[in-house]
Specification:
Blueprint: H1 7-35, E1 39-42, H2 49-61, H3 63-69, E2 74-77, H4 80-84, H5 86-102, H6 104-108, H7 112-118
Helix pairs in contact: 1-2
């Protein structure tokens, strides 16, 4: 049995999604100021126009971003098949990075000791991190 939402519930749902976009903008501000990304991609269940629009509006409202960079980063959302397989692509990317990360020495064709010394900070195993 399909449930039909009345206007009050639809409005409440829309307001909640707008709030999610606004909060995401608040949370992204420090990262954007630190890294200056070209693009922010919204995916998963949040890849809806209401969230994207609220996020864009929030990022555009920050004077810190406009003062430092001029414009806020582009905000796009993954739609359709791109969004459906975002989790699978993310997992595959994590596996690839793990394998590349572990085989750093062979990628550069340099003696193992030199590469390990040059990239020591980047090749720490996760278990040796303080957290």
């Amino acid at each position: 049995m399909k449930r039909v939402l009345d206007d009050e519930h639809v409005t409440a749902h829309k307001n909640a999604l707008e709030e999610v976009g606004t909060l995401a903008g608040d949370c992204l501000l420090p990262t954007i100021l630190m890294l200056n990304p070209y693009r922010v991609i919204v995916s998963g269940r949040l890849a809806v126009p209401v969230v994207r629009d609220a996020l864009v509006e929030r990022l555009d409202s920050f004077t810190a971003i406009s003062r430092v960079f001029g414009d806020a980063p582009d905000v796009i959302m993954l739609e359709g098949p791109e969004n459906h397989f975002a989790a699978v692509r993310g997992a595959a990317l994590a596996v690839l990075r793990q394998e590349v990360h572990r085989n750093f020495e062979t990628l550069y064709g340099a003696p193992e000791k030199l590469v390990t010394a040059r990239f020591a900070d980047l090749t720490w195993p996760l278990t040796s991190c303080p957290w």
